[in-house]
Amino acid sequence: MVAVVYVAGAVFFMNRFLPNTVMGEHDISLMEAADAERVLVDSLGDYEVDVSGQGFALNLTAEEAGMDMDAPRVVKSMLSDTNPWLWPLEVTRSHNMQDRLAASYSEGSLGRTVRAAVEKFNKTAKPPVDATVAFDKAKGTFTAQKESAGTALDAEAVMTAVGEALATMEPKVRLTASHLQQPTLRSTDGYLDAAVDAANQLIEADVKLTMGGAVAAEVDPELLSTFVSFDENLVPSFDDAALTAWVDEAAASCTTAGSERSFTRPDGKAVTVAGGTYGWTVDRDALLDVVRRSVDEGVVGEVEMPCTTTGAAFNGTGAQDWGARYCDIDLTEQHVRFYDESGALAWEAPCVTGTPNGSHDTPTGVYWLNRKQSPSKLEGTNLDGSKYVSTVRYWMPFVGNVIGLHDAYWQPAFGGSLYRNGAGSHGCVNLPVASAESLYGIIQEGDVVVCHW
Question: Are the C-beta atoms of residues 217 and 250 closer than 8 Å to each other?
Fold first, then answer.
């Protein structure tokens, strides 16, 4: 009797599914092949897949994916996986035939839909960032910067995941970090370390360029890093043209001779003056040689800024670059003052300066006193073309040997507005004889003369 039941059961399950058999969300227990085929066809019509994760969401229907299925073939494959002779053991077990589903889909239709959705999503997503070499200000060196995946999706990876779900009619696709676009260069790649080492060899120099004991400019790793670039293989190169441009700018900004400078006179008057020959003049070509050599040799330390002329101090562009000792010619006040090394007023006198007619104006600016001569013969040309010759006892020129301070015995008075009311000089600073004699005894060749309004 048992054998009859066993054989009858085997025959019954030869074209039927065992109990507890499901196909995804559909129970096909005890169904014959034809019934199971109808379930497959109906389920395909109702099928849709939800794709989500990483901030992305997309719902696809079977029609949108261009899906189709050979139901008889799929059911036959499912039944072939069942051994009806083992029905006494299998009837109590669970059977999921989901992996036997073999739906097909239109790759063209699916691809267009998925790629369009991913492309739209990626417009606001963050793309991956390759590992690279960058300058770290805190460390003062180039370092390897770790890669990051970002949030942009890989359309091909999403396509693959959706295609696999469609083939077995899975209702959900969960996107993970593995579906994101991935960096192509990672910090673990060996040649990244080689690129870091090569780049740091280009920025070893750290040179402070000094003027008058003050640091006027610095060629340090942070600056040099801006002149380093990398090709597609992260091979670094140094931009000498950019370094040269920096030297040009540094030479111009640190040159004070002739530039506009503002200062406060010891009596409190605020003065701005431009022009003249006194000050720092940076030797641009020599500076370029110094900087290039320092970079090539990785020099660390202080180097004096090469200059063709120097001042007493360097306080930055636009500031006073002479010391406390100097001669101050105030064209507005028609008054001359001399301050000693302590900044104290050592001498003063009224004066008459050049006639303000465009030809005989006393030039403004910061100068050196070029020489002293006593006596001296002054020769020049009047506005009418006639020549003049004047002998003075105290000659103190500061613009070449043409414009200077000197005694003027012929002037009846000094100061006030005489210089513009007919008593103006040919450009020199006229002083009373006694005052000129006193100044001549104080002022020295090389002293600074500041002439201003």
Answer: yes
Which residue is associated with the tokens 């513009």?
A: 420
**Which residues are 50's β-sheet partners?**
59, 172
What is the C-alpha separation between 322 and 310, in angstroms, rounded? Answer: 10
Query: CATH assignment of 326-452, given 3.40.50.12370, 2.40.440.10, 2.40.50.140, 2.130.10.10?
Result: 2.40.440.10
User: What is the rounded CA–CA span in Å between residue 357 and residue 262?
Assistant: 26
- Scanning the structure block, which residue is given the tokens 């002739």? 258
DSSP for residue 279: S
How far is it, in rounded angstroms, from Cα 59 to Cα 66? 14
Q: 23: part of which helix (H) or strand (E)?
A: strand 21-23
Residue 386 DSSP SS3: coil
Q: 151-202 pLDDT, tens per residue? A: 999 999 999 999 888 877 889 999 999 999 999 888 887 778 999 999 999 9
Residue 401 one-letter amino acid: N
Residue 125 to residue 120: CA distance in whole angstroms? 9
Return the domain boundaries, the chain. 2-122, 203-259+275-309, 326-452
CATH 3.40.190.10 fits 203-259+275-309, yes or no: no
Cα separation values, 452 from 328, 330, 332, Å: 8, 5, 8
Single pTM value for the model: 0.70
How far apart (Å, rounded) are the C-alpha atoms in residues 267 and 263? 11
